[in-house]
Amino acid sequence: MEISRIAVIGAGTMGNGIAQVTATCGYTVTMIDVVPEALERGRANIWGSVARLFSKGRLTAEQKAAAEAISTDTNLQAAASADLVIEAVVEKMSVKQQVYTELDRLTRPDAILATNTSSISITEIGACTRRPDKVVGMHFMNPVPLMQLVEIIRGLDTSDETTMAVTELSVKLGKTPVEAQDYPGFISNRILCPMINEAVYALMEGVGTREAIDTVMKLGMNHPMGPLTLADLIGLDIVLNVMQVLHHGLGDDKYRPCPLLRKMVAAGHLGRKSGRGFYEYGGQL
Length: 285
Prior knowledge:
The protein is an alpha/beta fold. It has eleven helices and eight strands. The model has no long low-confidence stretch (mean pLDDT 96).
């Protein structure tokens, strides 16, 4: 299947990043969000990002113009003509179920429905549709314009053709696709989030300060940033959600979310996006 028109559902951090990358690679892109203010913020983020990349010589003038020309809409109907829909809405199955039921009704039967979920079962999402063979996971990394990996996740009924189509697309986007099976956390978060969770336990138990824990992992393990700093970047609510999925889906107490992580999320200390997490971020609310 040839893919030329892409609809991105959700204008948040991941959604606008995916829209930007697909547009600069020559695809006709529509970014959809039910909240007009979210679309405005998403468009502003895209314009700022492409301006920075253009100034550094990493985008051509044509690519910059293509990103700035991304169309926006508040109605899912705008996805009707898409060859591929990439969903990047909130990580709640009830919300995704509603979105996919509508997309299944509105889009062409041969359109591929991909989800950027970091933890929810692709098989379960596919079961919301009449085309589970065309439902697949495309888990981009944050920030999308800079990170090379795309985790391709097959649900139980995802076809070889669908998997091949999104794998080829990922390569055209300049990404490196890696295939994973549909188990809780897939590959990336099955490994990453338990490490972050253990770092939070170490902080809670007084094994080291936040700075000590992050410095050990940066200088001793050659990680680009420490796990607590990374948690703030990802969002503590997202880390907690993934740990809950792992704990529930795998039934092993080694995935039990740290009580400190739960407490911080309950307090609204979510990291960079709230202005406070394990560290403080001045000027961000």
